[in-house]
Structure formats: C-alpha cells, structure tokens
Design goal:
Length: about 425
C-alpha cells in the first residue's frame, strides 16, 4: 500500500476529509460519488407464497437458500420449483440484474442479505424474498456487493425488527442510503471483486471435492473393502461395550471446559462462538481424558461425537467413552462418522420423536461393529484419514484468508477510499 493511500485511510478513519472527498450522512466519500436511497434505485416487491402441494415441480423458484449459498444466482443453481399459472409467473418473475433480498431470518446478520440474478431464463421468487428491479442505472454485481458491505449492512440490520426471528420490509429497505460512483467505475470495481469471487469459488469446489474423496476413502477403508498394503488379517465383530466403558467421573471443577461439535469434534469451549449456557456450578460436569470419545447423548444419531485431545470437563448432556481394549480411538472416531454406523446409533436410540431421541451407554454398548483385529491396521487407517482431514483443514484456512482479503478490499473500493484506474 503506497503512502498516499495509507494517509488517506488514516485521515478518513480520524474523521478528516481529504482533498477530493466530502462528508455525507453515510460517511466520507469521493466528491464525484452520489448518495441515493434504495427507493431511487430499485422498485421492491415481495414474492409469491404457494400451497404445500405446489412445491417440487413446475417453474424454477428462488428462495432464501439460493440467496445465501451462491456468489450470484443463475437459472442452473436455483434449487426449488413451484407450480404456478401464467399470471403468477408474470407478476413474480425475475430478470437479468434484479437484486434479491432475504426478507426473514433467524439471525440479524442474514436478514436483508442481497444477491443478484444473472440469467435471462425465466424464474420466479418466493414469499421470503424481496425483489429489487432497476429504476436507476447500476452495475448489478457492484450493487450486490455494495448492499452486503459493512456500511450498508449496518443500516439494514438497524432497521430489522424481531427478537427470535428478524424481518425487514420494503419500507425499511427503501430508507437505506448508498454511495454510488459513475457506472464505468462500478463496472471496474465489480470486475476486481469478481476475480476474488472466482478464486473463492474454485477453492470451495476443491474443498468439496476433497471431502467427497475422503468420504469415499472412509467407506472403503473402514469397511475392509480396500486393505492397506501389508495387512491381511481378519476383521472381527465386537460389541461396543467390549471395547469402551463409560467414564462417569465428576467433581473436576478446575479442569478446562470443553465442547463437542458436529464438525470439529471436541474443542476448547473458548475456541467456538456460542452463547455460554453452561452452569456456574461445574460439580456435575464429566471428566474427559485424551483418547476418550465423547458424544452428545441426544444427538449421537446425527453423528455428534469426537475423540478428545485434551484433559477437561464437559456438560452432563454428553456421554464419555473410555477405551478398555485393544482399539485405536481415532479409528473408532472415524467409524462413528460413517452413515451406516450413524443409522445404528439412531436405531438404538430411545425416544418418541427426533427431538427426544437419546443414546445412553446401556444401549450404546449393545451395538455390534466390525473392526480389524490388528491395532496397527486400525492406526494406519486412522492416519490416512487424518492426513485427508489436515489437507481439508489447510484448504479451509486458505479459503477463509481469501474471504478476509476480499472483505478488506470491499471496504476500500466500495467506500471510494481507494479509487480504481479507469
């Protein structure tokens, strides 16, 4: 970053107005940019609600997941369909360059989130979506990025209503003010940010591919369908109660507090962003040791388990397994993530509905699985799968770095702090 740009950033952050800039109600912007409310840029309309039996067939139908899960929306990546007559299609269709907002969300961070439709094929949009149609010239990708930038998100989130679920209407969106450069500068900024989007998309595709490869590897290695070189011994059926006992030790209040997650396994409680619902009285919390396996008693049928690397304590809502036989904990940890085994966990869980299903140790210990007799083979399989996990973890960190770099670039380009060369 050159000295001029650095000085400009520092000045604006101090509230000073550099030469060539002006102060507005939404911040300091270049003199040749203009401030416009959304009502002067877009005409807004709520989407269509259909009967339950109309979903799943008919015309492509944009809903909130399409907005959240794509860098931009095109006809091919729309998930849903709905049956609709010609009048509904005419009144609720989307056109190239339309902006689509998420109208309702469980989190304030997602309500009002914007995406853009970049296709000429006809689709319609749902009742939890607000369509914005152009009434003032703009570059579609630029406007989508601007609407999701920090300065716009602060305005949108402050206007959202709700406590357990957040909503935003047309009136509130119309009030949001944006700073716009001339169209050719919008286009240049959109081109730059699209380059980052492409890099992010490629990295996401690579991570998806690696996860699919790991899933296939697990299926082959953990069932004995594919044997590692040098191993030819028999596999044996064992009941889980023969290789694990339940650790029920409590009263270790001074131990570190841990949590068991579905995607990261067992982690230090302070490493995850969750509302702290733990009791101040930890006397009933269960002790867990390295190589123990912990699982969520109410969610083992969803695969929520992990191998502990730490000595600590966990909520009484978890069941702790202590290995008692010749078994590799990491091999078993991977085995517990297989769909066939998770189905067994569900079958042995007790409860009338999903919300009440629980797998206590007394039922867990009855489950029968097939594993290698050789501890060395178990360890070798676990090491291969661990290597795959580490590769995915590294790629995920690279993806997060790309996203952070793009976010920093957005902050500079979409506010005009850094100008693009035309």
């Amino acid at each position: 970053m050159n000295v001029e740009i650095k000085g400009r950033i520092e000045a604006i952050y101090r509230g000073e107005v550099p030469e060539g800039y002006r102060k507005t109600e939404i911040g300091i912007i270049p003199e040749d940019w203009e401030v416009k409310a959304i009502e002067k840029i877009l005409e807004l309309k709520n989407g269509v609600n259909a009967k339950k039996e109309d979903y799943g067939h008919g015309i492509k139908f944009i809903n909130v997941l399409d907005i959240l899960n794509n860098n931009h929306i095109n006809y091919e990546n729309i998930i849903g369909k709905v049956n609709a007559d010609e009048r509904v299609i005419k009144n609720n269709s989307v056109s190239y360059g339309d902006i689509l907002f998420q109208r309702s969300s469980e989190t304030v961070e997602e309500v009002g989130y914007a995406n853009v439709y970049l296709d000429k094929k006809i689709a319609i949009f749902g009742g939890f979506v607000i369509r914005g149609r152009k009434i003032f010239d703009y570059e579609p990708l630029f406007l989508k990025e601007l609407l999701n930038s920090d300065i716009s998100r602060r305005q949108i989130e402050s206007r959202a209503a709700g406590s357990t679920r957040f909503n935003i209407g047309q009136k509130e969106l119309y009030e949001v003010k944006l700073s716009l450069p001339l169209i050719y500068e919008q286009q240049k900024i959109a081109q730059i940010l699209s380059t980052w989007d492409k890099a992010i998309e490629l990295k996401e595709e690579l991570i998806k591919k690696k996860r699919e490869q790991k899933k296939g590897l697990m299926q082959k290695l953990l069932t004995g369908e594919m044997r590692l070189l040098g191993f030819g011994g028999d596999w044996e059926k064992v009941k889980l109660g023969e290789i694990f006992t339940e650790r029920r030790e409590i009263g270790c209040n001074d131990f570190e507090l841990l949590a068991i997650t579905s995607d990261k396994g067992i982690v230090r409680r302070n490493e995850i962003v969750l509302k702290d619902t733990s009791s101040s009285d930890k006397s009933k919390y269960k002790k867990i040791m390295p190589l123990d396996i912990g699982y969520n008693t109410m969610r083992m049928w969803q695969g929520v388990s992990g191998v502990s690397k730490y000595k600590g304590i966990v909520s009484p809502a978890y069941t702790i397994l202590k290995p008692i036989s010749v078994v590799n904990s990491y091999f078993m940890g991977y085995l517990f993530k297989m769909s066939q085994i998770i189905n067994l966990f569900r079958r042995y869980s007790q409860g009338l509905v999903n919300d009440t299903l629980n797998l206590k140790y007394n039922n867990f210990r009855k489950i029968e699985v097939t594993i290698p007799r050789s501890l060395k083979e178990q360890k070798s399989i676990a090491q291969i799968l661990s290597t795959a996990d580490k590769e995915i973890e590294l790629l995920t960190k690279e993806l997060e770095l790309l996203k952070q770099q793009k976010k920093g670039l957005m902050q500079l380009l979409l506010t005009g702090i850094v100008r693009v060369k035309i």
